[in-house]
UniProtKB/TrEMBL annotation:
This is Phosphatidic acid phosphatase. The chain crosses the membrane at residues 57-77, 118-138, 145-166, 186-207, 219-240, 246-266. It comes from the Bacteria. It comes from Micromonospora craterilacus. Residues 145-259 form the Phosphatidic acid phosphatase type 2/haloperoxidase domain. The lineage of its organism: Bacteria, Bacillati, Actinomycetota, Actinomycetes, Micromonosporales.
């Protein structure tokens, strides 16, 4: 019985090839590209896979993804500098920080600090690794581990490049909640990593979830986590609002690149000739 037939029966079978289960998001076949650009890219990747094999194609795709990471970060820096010059969104930085300071209480500060620590350089990698391993066991393949590794590596690269290019100073320590941070402020690494890690986990979960309500709840939980992480950074005075806004947009852009790379992998794997 083919995978599409399994889907229509409501009982997909992945025992023969676990990767086949990742081909579908609900009823949608991810190896079918509906846009003209998508079809062109998928056709080029599939054709290249017949000549050099699927894994070299994936390596090339990853290289393109790295270039896109650097390009996206550079563009965000240009947008940020333009915004600062016109005092547009950056004009909200000080008022939002003042509003956050007015809302603080010792109990709320402790709770938000405990939450924001989840996105830090110690706990977030652990959470990402545990989630990737658990998903790999559930999917019965190493794909989730590879996807998470690529996604987090790109996120860290974007954060590093952005901080180096801008070198923005964080809000004054007098306006922040301890423990204090001294690295560059732009973009918010906690927020960027939260978007990417939560997004990848949600994406891999919805690939195997059959009910649309379950998929909607999974996506909503990822969105709430990423939004709350960004707001926690502003509330504690560890980042300016614009640091978080750019981190959200960069994270979503990189997440879109990672998901597209995964779809190309599924497409190449699906159409390549069997030996």
């Amino acid at each position: 019985m083919c995978a599409s037939q399994d889907r229509h029966d409501g009982q997909p079978e992945w025992a023969a090839d676990p990767a086949e289960g990742d081909r579908y998001l609900g009823w949608r076949d991810l190896t079918v590209w509906k846009t003209r650009l998508g079809r062109i890219v998928a056709a080029l990747a599939s054709r290249a896979a017949r000549w050099i094999g699927p894994y070299p194609v994936l390596a090339l795709t990853l290289l393109v993804g790295v270039v896109l990471v650097v390009a996206l970060t550079a563009v965000s820096v240009e947008i940020y500098e333009a915004v600062v010059e016109t005092d547009g969104v950056a004009g909200l930085d000080e008022p939002v920080l003042r509003a956050a300071m007015a809302a603080r209480t010792p109990q709320l500060n402790a709770a938000v600090t405990a939450f924001t620590d989840l996105g830090g350089p110690v706990i977030m990698p652990i959470l990402a690794a545990v989630a990737a391993i658990a998903l790999a066991i559930w999917h019965r393949q190493v794909g989730p581990v590879v996807l998470m590794a690529v996604a987090t590596a790109g996120s860290l690269l974007m954060t590093t490049v952005g901080k180096a290019l801008v070198g923005r100073i964080r809000p004054p320590l007098a306006d922040a909640v301890a423990p204090y941070e001294t690295s560059a402020s732009f973009p918010s690494g906690h927020t960027l990593n939260a978007v990417v890690v939560a997004g990848v986990v949600a994406y891999l979960l919805v690939l195997r979830q059959q009910r649309w309500r379950t998929r909607a709840a999974t996506v909503a939980a990822a969105v709430v986590f990423a939004v709350a992480m960004g707001l926690s950074r502003v509330f504690l005075g560890h980042h300016w609002l614009t640091d978080v806004l750019v981190a959200w947009t960069l994270g979503l852009a990189w997440l879109a690149v990672v998901i597209t790379m995964h779809r190309l992998y599924l497409t190449v794997r699906h159409v390549r000739p069997r030996r």
